[in-house]
Amino acid sequence: MKNYLPQKWLNNLEILDIAFQPILNIHTGKTFAVEALLRNYQEVGFKSIFALFDYVYEEGLLYSFDIKLREKAFKKFTEINGFKDIKLFYNLDNRIFKMPNFAQGYTNELLKKYDIKKESICFEISERHEISSDCNMEKILTHYQNSNFCIAIDDFGVGYSGFKLLYDSIPNIIKIDRFFLTNIEKDIKKKLMVRSITHLAIQLGIKVIAEGVETKEELLTCRDIGCHLVQGYLAQRPTLKTTEITKEYQNIIDILSSDKRVNKTECKLEVYLDKMPSLHVKTKMSSVIDYFKKYPNIPIVTIVNSNDEPIGILKENKIKEFLYSPYGKSLMLNDGNKKTKLKNLLQPCGIADINSDMSTIIELFSNNPEPVGIILTNNSKYYGFLSAKAIITIMNEQNLLYAREQNPLTKLPGNTMIEKYIADVAMNDTSYLLCYFDLDNFKAFNDAYGFRNGDRVIQLFADILKKHLPQEFFKAHIGGDDFFTAVKINEDNENIYRDKISNIIEKFINDVRAFYNQDDEKQDSIISTDRDGNKKEFPLLSVSASILMINNTKNERCQSNINKILSKQKKIAKMELQHIAASSLL
Q1: pTM for the whole thing?
Q2: Residues 250 and 311 in one domain
Q3: How many Å apart are CA 438 and CA 580, to the nearest integer?
C-alpha cells in the first residue's frame, strides 16, 4: 500500500495524542485558531518530538506517518466547540517532500471526511528544519499556496533565510520567535527589531503572531507595536482536553480592558472608513467587471476568502488593460484562463484591527513606500478600507490638534494633553510613574539674567527631557518652569525609571551652569531680588521632582487626588537634598 505503516507505528499512533494551544486576536482576546502539538512521545520511547520525526524520516516512513497523524489532529479538532469558526495550525516537517511515496490530494480527502473548510487549515513550517537545496521552504510554500492553503512560518527571525522567504514566496502568517519577545518592554533593541519585522510583514499583507507571550507587559507591547495575534502561556498552556478551548479568554480581555484609554480613535476611523462590499477570491471576472461598473468611483476593492478574511486588494487599473480591447475582454471573461483569475491579480495591502491605536496605523502607512491605504478588520474579518486620502486627512487633523495644544516655546504637549493623560491614568488600573518637575530659583535667575536667558534655560530642560528620557515616557510642558512626565511601569522597570528621573536632575544641574557668568558660577550663587523686591543671595538653578507611583489599583485613583498629591509634594521636594519627593498610591 502506498501509505503503509508497520503495526508498530500504528500502535504508537494510538498512544500519541494531540494537545491544542489557542491563538488569540491581540485586540479582543477572541480565539482565532489553535495549534496542534504532539504529546505522549515519551511513552513511545522518544526524548523529544524532533527525535521521533528524525526516526520515522530515517525509516522512510515520514509521509505515511504524517498523513495518519494529520488525520488524528483533524478528527480531534472537530471536537472543539465552534471549530468551524477558527483555524487549525498544523506543523509540517519539511522533509516529507523527500519521501518516495509523497503524493497530492490526501489533505483534501481528510477535510472532506471531517467536514472542515480548506480555509480553516494553516500549515506551519519552520526554517529550523530546512535540510537541503532540493527540499527547501520555498518549495513547500509554493506547493501548499498553489493548493490554496494558508501558510505560516514558525520561529521567524531565528534562521538566516527569513527575509529571503518574505521576498521569494510571501506566506500568509509569520510567528515571531519567543526570543525576541522575552522582556520586550524593557529591551529597546528587541522592541525596534520586532517593530521592523511586524511593519514590514503588514505592508506585505502578512498577519503577525507574537508567539510565546507570558506576561501582561509583553502582551501590551506587542499589541502596541501592531501584532495581530498572540499565543503563549499568558492565555493558556497547551491542553489535551478540547473542552478547555474557549471562544474567548477572559484573562486576556481583562488585561486589554484595563489598559484601554478613553479616546475617540475608533469614532474617527468610522467617519473616514470606506465600507464598500468586498469580493470573494473565487469571484468570476465577469462579476468583477460588473462590480466596477456598479461602483465607478471605487478604484480599489478588498478581496476576501471564505472566512471573510482579507487576503489582498484589486485595483481597477489592474484590469483596464484587458477591458480596453475586445481580445483582452474576451480573455478576461474566459474562466479557463488561469492568468486572469482574480487570485493572480491581487496585490498585498497592510491589515490592521479596528481597535488598533491610530498612531500605529499612521506609522504603518507612513513606512510604506507605495501606500494606497490600510484594510481594517474586526475579529480578523473584513470591516472596511481606510484609503490613503483618509489617513492623510486624519494625520493633518492630528498635527493641527497637536500644534494647537503644544507649548510654543518647547514644542512639548501642553495642559490639555496633560489633563487627558492623567484622566486616562485615573480610568484604568495599570501601574504608572508620574513626575512633576519644577525649576528651583528660576525667578531669581530670570530677574538677574533676563527673560531671553530664562527662555533658553526652559528650552535646555525640555531638550534634556526629550534626549534623556526613553521614548515610552510622556513628556509635557505645563507652562513657565513647570514640566510633567509619566510612564507605565512594572516591578522590573520601576527602579530603572526612578533612576532616569534622578539622572535628569543631575544632568540639568550640571548643564545649566554654562548659563552663568564666571563670578556667579565660581561662588555658586547670584544676587537677585526676592518676591518682596529685596536684594538677596540665591543658589544656582536646580530642579525638583515630585514623583507619584500608582500601583495597579483603582483606590483613590481620581484626577483631583493625583494632582493634589503631586502639587503638595513639590514643596517637600525643594527641601530635600536629592531634590526628589516620592510617594505611592496603593
Answers
A1: 0.71
A2: no
A3: 11
Residue 461 to residue 481: CA distance in whole angstroms: 9
Q: Are residues 455 and 429 in the same domain?
A: yes
- Residues forming a β-bridge with 527: 537
If asked whether residues 326 and 442 sit together in one domain, one would say no
Residue 87, strand partner residues: 33
- Note the pLDDT tens digit of each residue in 320-357: 766 666 655 665 666 655 555 788 788 888 898 888 87
**Alpha helix positions (H), 227-337:** 250-259, 265-272, 285-294, 317-323, 326-333
Find the mean pLDDT for residues 106-122. Answer: 93
Which pLDDT belongs to residue 511? 96
The average pLDDT across 71-99 equals 93
Residue 121 and residue 237 in one domain: yes
In the predicted model, is pLDDT for residue 481 greater than 90? Answer: yes
- pLDDT value of residue 266: 45
Q: Both 313 and 233 in a single domain? A: no
Number of H helices, E strands in the chain: 22, 21
Element (DSSP H or E) covering residue 527: strand 525-529
User: Does 76 share its domain with 51?
Assistant: yes
Q: Are 123 and 84 in contact, with CB atoms under 8 Å apart?
A: no
Strand intervals (E) in 309-361: 310-315, 351-353
CA distance 114 to 401: 55
- Given pLDDT bands bounded at 50, 70 and 90, which one contains residue 459? very high
* Cα dihedral 254, 255, 261, 265 sign: negative
pLDDT tier for residue 101 given thresholds of 50, 70 and 90: confident
Are 304 and 310 a contacting pair, CB within 8 Å? yes
Q: Which of 238, 260, 282 is the last residue of a domain?
A: 260
Residue 261's pLDDT is 46
End-to-end CA distance of the chain: 70
Domain for residue 169, yes or no? Answer: yes
250-275: pLDDT as tens digits: 999 988 887 654 344 444 678 888 88
- Residue 102's pLDDT is 83
Put the strands of the sheet holding 300-304 in their side by side order: 279-280, 300-304, 310-315
**For the chain, what is the mean pLDDT?**
86
Strands 432-440 and 542-550: antiparallel
Domain that holds residue 487: 406-585
Domain end residue (candidates: 260, 290, 325):
260
Both 482 and 579 in one domain: the answer is: yes
Residues contacting residue 550 through CB under 8 Å, at least 6 positions apart: 425, 431, 432, 433, 434, 557, 562, 584, 585
Indicate if 439 and 566 belong to the same structural domain.
yes
Residue 131 confidence (pLDDT): 43
Q: How many domains does the chain have?
A: 3
Spell out the residues 6+ positions from residue 106 whose beta carbon is closer than 8 angstroms to its own.
3, 67, 70
Is the pLDDT at 37 greater than 70? The verdict is yes
Q: What are phi and psi of 511, to 5 degrees?
A: -75, -30
